[in-house]
Amino acid sequence: MASPALANPGTTLQYMHSTHDSFAVRRLAGTEPLWMYRACTPSSVPSHLSAKSSTRSKHAPPPPPPPSSSSAHTASSYANPNASGVNQIERRFPQSRPPPFLAATPPTPPDGGGGTMAAPTAASSTAAPMEDLLDQRLFVTFDDAYKAIKDHQYQRGFVATSKSVSTNRQGQKRGYICCQRSGEYRPWAHNAGKKKSSTKKSACPFSVYISFSRATGTYAVRVKHQEHNHEPLSELRANSRYRLDSQRHFGPEIYRLVESLSKENKTLQQIARCIGEAHPEISIHFRDVSFIRKQLRLGRVPACPPAQPSTEVIRRNPSAPSHRPLRSGIYAPTMTFFEPATEDLDMVSIKTHAQRLVRAGLVGLVAMGSYGEAVHCTRNEKVAVTRATREALDAAGFPATPIIIGATEGSVRGTVELAVQAKDAGADYALVLAPSYYKTQIDKEAIVGYFTAVADASPLPVIVYNHPAVVAGIDLDSDVLIRLAQHPNVVGTEFTCGNTGKLSRVAQATFAQTPFGQGSGYMAFGGMCDFTLQTLISGGSGVIAGGANVMPKVCVRVWNLYTDGKREEAEALQKILSRGDWALTKAAIAGTKYAIHAHYGYGGFPRRPLKKLNQATAAAIQEGIREVMDVEKSL
Length: 635
Description:
Layout: E1 12-18, E2 25-26, E3 31-32, E4 34-40, E5 80-81, E6 87-90, H1 130-135, H2 142-156, E7 160-167, E8 173-179, E9 207-213, E10 218-225, H3 240-246, H4 252-263, H5 268-278, H6 286-297, E11 329-333, H7 347-359, E12 364-367, H8 379-395, E13 403-406, H9 412-425, E14 429-433, H10 444-457, E15 462-466, H11 478-484, E16 490-495, H12 500-510, E17 523-526, H13 532-537, E18 542-544, H14 552-563, H15 567-600, H16 615-624, H17 626-634
Parallel strand pairs: 11-12, 11-18, 12-13, 13-14, 14-15, 15-16, 16-17, 17-18
Antiparallel strand pairs: 1-4, 2-3, 4-6, 5-6, 7-8, 8-9, 9-10
Helix pairs in contact: 4-6, 5-6, 7-8, 8-9, 9-10, 11-12, 14-15, 15-16, 15-17
């Protein structure tokens, strides 16, 4: 298959990188450069790209011949001649796009009987150009973009793979997706009789770059070259990388069928033929059969078909006599205050603090969470703080404000017992962490079983608390969270992991509540106030923000500006909020209590073993939050 530039003899491929002024591309926020290429005649080729000055490798293959009329992939599919005879391909984006949480689901292979993706053939590949694919898509994670590109190339009969992928300090990936045959070309004659992968290289120019866009909080894709210099694979199923991707889609039914046919002493080819006849919608290769038999020997049989995110309404969460409804907005994990001399509970400060927060515009409070030093308190103290908070809200005229209690006690029995007592004290929901003390003995199924057992027995609706930093690094992935969301007594997730891509996937799958719609009532909470805006953009329901203990009005202001359509003002204020929140995050609980004492006259110190602040740290906090506190006091 020839590239567009080589569609006519005597033409050369010229790469161009346009500037913002020449080809502005409308994105979600602002513009960015655009890659394009065009076919040009020898007379218009720049000198540095001419044949005499070419820097092509000495091993590069000769230009392929012009494509035949019967070729399934012709240059005319991607290049349109203009009046001057110059073929031009430009990557354009629409003037407006849906937000990232409304992005289309990446194309998935046809499935049937627990089956796998069907392997396309060279003659039947009719996939849309890469440009069309990207014009319709936004990607919230690098893996989403990579999968979409791979699936697109599979449909055309090619195999794409990642090259030079790196991760920055913020954990965001970037890198190139190239053809499996990219790289230095080595003639077959030089490797006769040798089974080396390098013999398949053809210096294929296909190249796509994926990078994170800070302006939009999503992953952007730039097409550098969307054509290949070789024909599609005649049998894609024979490719090992394709088989590795497709084998993940085989369900337990296929495993059982392979096991039963193997007991009849059938060969790999016979088993593949039998499965193909029984399930014509499945494309299976004899090498797939070998892979499945190996998994059976190792005892790795899938327990159920691969879970697919559901977009249907899972539940409604209406107001009920047993609990107050959760609303979209800002929540705060309230601090627990102690008497400086005795470390006894300071009930006066606890009640004063709760009333100050709800009067600032917060729509709910979390008692005995991470900021509430729950691990330093007894069960009786947790219940007492919950009761005092409820009394303070009722006295201040906020009887409808819900209280979420951190109910984690490590065991199913202890967590349920605390939830029972907390309900009597005025709590409405239970926030539950993953069990982590015996981390080496806890696997994914044990975690799912723990949350399911708690949700079955808890009188309070459960919110899953995903906070890897406090549970020995256990980070629940989106598949587990979506699976847990199917339980009727699990009503939300708090993403203190800071992964907005995960939040977006769960919010889509559960049809979560947002400021713009009730949805199913499921709540997808961001866990830090420094990505309040990112939570909104990703389709989140609210933010449980530790920084809201100090600057609640600023947090609420950012939320309200965005929901009112004032995005530029919200972005500007979010930057100020993030700078101030970072100063508090570094100083943790002791620093937050110091800031409360410095600006509101109460706060005290954390319980031991946490230490008090020294003067240098206190001065750094004051300087770090000076800007945001000026805004807070002006509201």
